[in-house]
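Q: I have two molecules that I believe assemble together. Could you output structure tokens for the complex as a whole instead of separate predictions?
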Amino acid sequence: MDLTNLKVYSEKDFPPYLPKLSSIYDDLFSGGKGLRSRLIRLTTKYLPLSEKQVLLLAQTIEFIHNASLLHDDLIDRSHLRRNKTTAWLKYTPEYAVLAGDYLLARVMVNLSKNGNIRLVQYTSEVISDLLEGEWIQDSLIKDHNVELEALDRVHNLKTASLFKWSLRAPFYCNENYDINLHHHLEEMGTILGQIFQRSDDLLDFNIRNEEKKAVLGDLKSGYLNSFAAFLMKDFSEPKRVEFMKCQSMPEVYSLLGEKYFFSAVEDFDNINTALIELFDHHLHRLEGFLSESQLGLIKELRTVSQKLYWRRT
Amino acid sequence: MDQLISLDRADNRFLSHLEGTFSTSHRAIPTKSLNVNSKKEYVTFKIVPVQNVKRPRTILLWWETLRLSSICLSLGPVLSALVLLNVTGVAVIEYLAVLSFVSVFLLHASMNLLNDYYDHLKGVDRLESIHAIQKGWMRAIDLYNWGVSLLLMGLLIGLVVIYKAPGSLLPVIFLAAVGVLKFSSNRMGLKYLGLGELTIFLLAGPLLVLGYAIAVSSPIKNEIIILGVFSGLLATFTIHINNMREVMNNCQAGIKNLVTLFGYDRAKPIACLILLGIALSWWMILFQIDKGPTSFVFWLLGVLLIKWVYFKIIWAKSNVSSHLNELLTNRYRIHFSITLLFALSVIF
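A: Yes, here they are, computed for all two components at once.
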């Protein structure tokens, strides 16, 4: 089964009578890295699933993720997504909300056609977690004393839920409901989500920013991301206030000193390296749940955590 | 790099790793999990050589292990009662006052230790709070042994107090024992019935204060009963803000309390009502014992502190808010400060 060119979005999958729908989705689905659907492809490679099932899983995760982006951009009032004008700005906030809702509705329609009720239930729980995470995250805007531990809880709901789904859903689809296997995959998905989020938060401070993403976006919108919370943990109140006002990296360096800043990056990398080691440990235990023909998955997953955190292609 | 090991519950090494008895040269520290409510059948431990564990000074180690910052929850009401009895001219049997104080201290410390031990075994609170075990300072079994020893000592001294007390303590002891057992039991626990706050209110309030007053003096005056309400509300507030912070996990675990029953937003006015109750009952005690303006200056200082707490609650937009976290981090300091101001208001 050749899955390298798996296309998760086709306008033929959507009704032609809804105005602007195709344009919104064309913009949305082009240019993304498709990280989560790649993880699906990687996991399903070693499971006896049909091409239709794999497509369903890949579509599901990308639809949920992209629905969350449509809503996120509106909540954050972001102007750019993947170097293009965001949907709410280009069309209208109403269309952006509807387009996001519609993607989530399609997920349920497609999955229920498949007939695996446990997969439908699990997916609904993940969507619920994701929305809870977004909801709680919104309450943290302008909260400049938030701690890394609180952000971890939010990211576990918002970011990690989709990584957990990408690891567990293929096994659900394969009707493997072993509770211990799923606990393992749940822990592994949590770690992947955490390190991906933390790495993404480092990009905001121009660390390993090969993608040339706009810097300090979170800070400028009043949101303290995981690295900022880690960086500020010992700051006094006035210094926190000053830090929140920074508009560029030179301003950050001038406030904190470059030496201090990069030493904090190193410390942050160290705690995340420990998380990657924990992921590898769980991976080793995962072997016990797989058949001989599935062991290739271990080797492939081992590189995923490294790639996600260190942004290696 | 520390060694990692995952053990299933069925594995015969599981308990020895949890209790820390598997080795004399290493500590087994459970790794943190963000999925606190998934009942996993295994635990992943980080195996750390004892010499790599950074132990603090002995005082700090015991302060953290016994969770002495929380001790004001029980000793605060006891000392307040003693001060109030003294100021209102009630004769106090001194040796019984000292013995009761020591007994309450030992029982509270032992409850902290045993609570941490059983939570550690059940996997509750592994994300935070059990510092002594999580940092490898102590083995879980050490906590258990110390907990049992302090419990026995506390009970022994308590028995002497019960025997020598001028009034009958049996009804109070009976109610307190039922409360403690029901609150800590997992299957029959009051925390699953939505009665956790009421139990805490009674245990750390009227039962503790009345019990202490009966143990060291008699008869019971109105101000002692109001002090019971004041102390109970203070303790309930401490629990309530913790419940506000943990609302997500508690909802998922099916724990019923005021926050999970009424929701996060309605928990804020409830917290404010409790604060109002604290200020009012305090004022009523001062009024009851005819205190002068100086006392009300301390009361006003207390109200200012309560006002700061009130605004922190109002500003906390969600359970992960830093305002709520700040309150939670300082909850025992707040309890201690209000108790101290109360004592000063009664004395002057």
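A: One point stands out. The first helix of chain A runs from residue 21 to 29.
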